[in-house]
Amino acid sequence: LSLLSTLKNSNKLTIMANISASTSFVMFFMVLISSKLMHTCLSSSTCPPGYPEHAIPIYKEDIDMMQFAENLEHLEADFFLWSALGYGLDQVAPWLAMGGPPPIGAQKANLDALTQHIIEEFGYEEVGHLRALKTTVGGFPRPLLDLSAHNFAKLFDQAFGYPLVPPFDPYRDSLSYMLASYVIPYVGLVGYVGTNPNINGYITKRLLAGLLGVEAGQDAVIRSYLYERAKEVVHPYNHTVAEFTIRISELRNRLAMCGIKDEGIIVPLELGAENQTMTNVLSANYDSLSYRRTPQEILRIVYGTGNEHVPGGFYPHGGNGRIAREEISGKKYLGGEALGFLDIAADWIAYWFQFLEEVGGFKNANKGTTMANISASTSFVMLVMVLTSSKLMHTCFSSPTCPPGYPEHAIPIYKEDIDMMQFAENLEHLEADFFLWSALGYGLDQVAPWLAMGGPPPIGAQKANLDALTQHIIEEFGYEEVGHLRALKTTVGGFPRPLLDLSAHNFAKLFDQAFGYPLVPPFDPYRDSLSYMLASYVIPYVGLVGYVGTNPNINGYITKRLLAGLLGVESGQDAVIRSYLYERAKEVVHPYNHTVAEFTIRISELRNRLAMCGIKDEGIIVPLELGAENRTMTNVLSANYDSLSYRRTPQEILRIVYGTGDEHVPGGFYPHGGNGRIAREFLEKP
Ligand SMILES: *[C@@H]1O[C@H](CO)[C@@H](O)[C@H](O)[C@H]1NC(C)=O
Ligand SMILES: *[C@@H]1O[C@H](CO)[C@@H](O)[C@H](O)[C@H]1NC(C)=O
Ligand SMILES: *[C@@H]1O[C@H](CO)[C@@H](O)[C@H](O)[C@H]1NC(C)=O
Ligand SMILES: *[C@@H]1O[C@H](CO)[C@@H](O)[C@H](O)[C@H]1NC(C)=O
Ligand SMILES: *[C@@H]1O[C@H](CO)[C@@H](O)[C@H](O)[C@H]1NC(C)=O
Description:
Elements: H1 2-12, H2 21-41, H3 60-85, H4 89-92, H5 113-137, H6 149-160, H7 174-182, H8 185-195, H9 202-228, H10 241-256, H11 295-302, H12 322-330, H13 335-358, H14 361-366, H15 376-396, H16 415-440, H17 444-447, H18 449-452, H19 468-492, H20 504-515, H21 529-537, H22 540-550, H23 557-583, H24 596-611, H25 650-657, H26 677-684
Helix pairs in contact: 2-24, 3-5, 3-8, 5-9, 6-10, 7-9, 8-9, 8-23, 9-22, 9-23, 10-11, 10-15, 13-15, 16-19, 16-22, 19-23, 20-24, 21-23, 22-23, 22-25, 24-25
Residues 270, 274-275, 286 line the site of one 2-acetamido-2-deoxy-beta-D-glucopyranose.
């Protein structure tokens, strides 16, 4: 009883206050059951550690590269904490600041309840990240950070090429704040993707994958928030949300001077997934892998100077740690030349914008377009920007400002990496056909038949009844999976698509299993957008935790790069789905009597039960004990004690996707089991 009343009281403090006591009690009860499972199972042979044997936990060379990330995690921690709470790391976890000076100009932002809860969760997640980094690879004092409205205003003026009037204020309202947030976790994401090929310890690789999963998730939550509002005009300016994102991404590309590695939420087809979508909830390369950046590129961006030797922007005295300090003290200054070129490019872009705005194209384009249907003139503006960037790309890619960023004398792909990477193709196939069929009414056999490699067509796949927003997101996801399959099969080889069961009946069985009784009428993923997103909640998350589990075990720099790129996008997809569901957490799912939040909790709980290795999966609302730093019930992202993404072994994944809780007994989405050596071996040795 006292537990129940504690829970009730803490609920009152949150936006989710209206979830009834009995629902909360159900959640709490389920969590208690999971905790029990955790204790019984964690030591058993069903849950081996999942790390390579005889491997080195942390290499000396990993340390500086991992420490470098603390600069960005500090920026995020104080930006999010201050904005949500009105105080920062110095109050929440002062030992992690290690005596660094307090940030300049940090303040509480004026946020609505939804945004407030998301940002509070993000803030606490960064605390976990700093703790995980500093306890694993050591750390340095927080650098001086400039979080003042004035500093953001300068950045946005730079992005638009003229001074916004009144100056941009990130703390003004929720939308302004999310636009300002768009600036930050993405840089962490691409930095982690760039670092992964260069680190070798299995503990460092595990840490990085966990950090990358959550950074990519945060970035995706922000992007999908902005995507849902893409056509809104940002008060008090005359620019849409979409245009803000395009300008900021373009600024980052210009500052980093290494081509296009950053894309707004709407792009010309040439930059969309498979050249097929202008919807661009996630920013990714040709193969729909997350882009990667070197520390130099990151410093050029966050200093706002386009020069890693010249501090400024968020870091008035520069970053800390060996990598950042050497760039500053070394003064290997490229100076006039590099900056001169940058200025010319910037002026040129500003000129084109002015020109296009004068002829009226862009302003008209802002009025009354649909996401499906951005007018030709908008595309033209974007195209001009992209062309400009491409020019930069060609001038810069071969220059010393953009070294390849891979370790020297390293092996691209180890023989041992191959089976582990191929295993992922089972999941990518499931996602590809589920998303493509649902959005388009046809699947891989029409879009890229050679990737199916003669595997049988999926059972029961069909077009889903989706609204325009959901349709565009799922179409993008479908094409992204095509890129993933291509990247995997060309890099590590592949096998034919396994037989997939995508029938409504199969999903209905799964949801009955999740609720512990038959839903009436049976759950139908294809019924409407909300049902579809709930069904989608089932899938990319399994890919995400699988990639996190694989990263410590692979060694080739090309395989590590590939995995990080896949992980970034899988995590992004999962986060887009979760944030869609979080915004609707309290809605009752028609025609049942359960809220969206409860659906997610039941599915996550089912996956924990099937995998039999404790809690590695959490719904969008959790009891405080599972929230970031034990402080939030908001749980847009599912992550562990240190706010790192959970990891799973192939065995755990097969237990889940077979729906049997046994990697030797196929079923569920894979009536004949998965393909590839790992999955087949379990089937042969029951
Ligand atoms: C915004 O655009 C409208 C019409 O296009 C114009 O009347 C108004 O002055 C503009 N406002 C600003 C702040 O530029
Ligand atoms: C996209 O189009 C470009 C040419 O504009 C082409 O080089 C590239 O191969 C296309 N990408 C895909 C995935 O089809
Ligand atoms: C744009 O929208 C209009 C009306 O909403 C429609 O008639 C037209 O076909 C659309 N164009 C494209 C390229 O989708
Ligand atoms: C839903 O709940 C209401 C009241 O709690 C009840 O009257 C109704 O029969 C329930 N419907 C279903 C389908 O369970
Ligand atoms: C959360 O609470 C548990 C006890 O319920 C404790 O063991 C754990 O250290 C706490 N986590 C954090 C990050 O404070």
